[in-house]
Amino acid sequence: MSAYSFLDVAAGIVGPGGAFGLGSGAGAAEEGITATPTAEISTMQVGADGSGQHSLHADKSGRVTVRLLKTSPVNKLLMTMYNFQTASSSAHGQNTIVITDTKRGDVITCRQCAFVRAPDLNFQKVAGTNEWMFDAIAIDRVMGNG
Fold this sequence. Notes:
By secondary structure, the chain is mostly beta strands. Helix content is 8%, strand content 49%.
């Protein structure tokens, strides 16, 4: 399949204080959702004589950024979760975010996600977007064959 559409992206968050969709139908901004690794997975060292070695790291951490239109009702749901989860450390860092491209078979599972901060709030001529960022202890990626 050589075509892509955000309409095929199903995404959701589950955690203390809420469970709801973040993908198509949630009022996503044009920039959508991004899952970014925090660190490199390998370190290479080369010795004085030119021999070398690779070190594989167990780090699967990353950052998930969800961009919503300012008018999306999901902003209120996320703010409610944020307020609940930042009121006590017992609710912090327990979210799971799953992003799926249903046509390609991509499945991105983000575990032990914590809100990084509340989004910047802009009030301007054009409504704009709200950016919600989460730090994830582990992001597992499966890329489909689309």
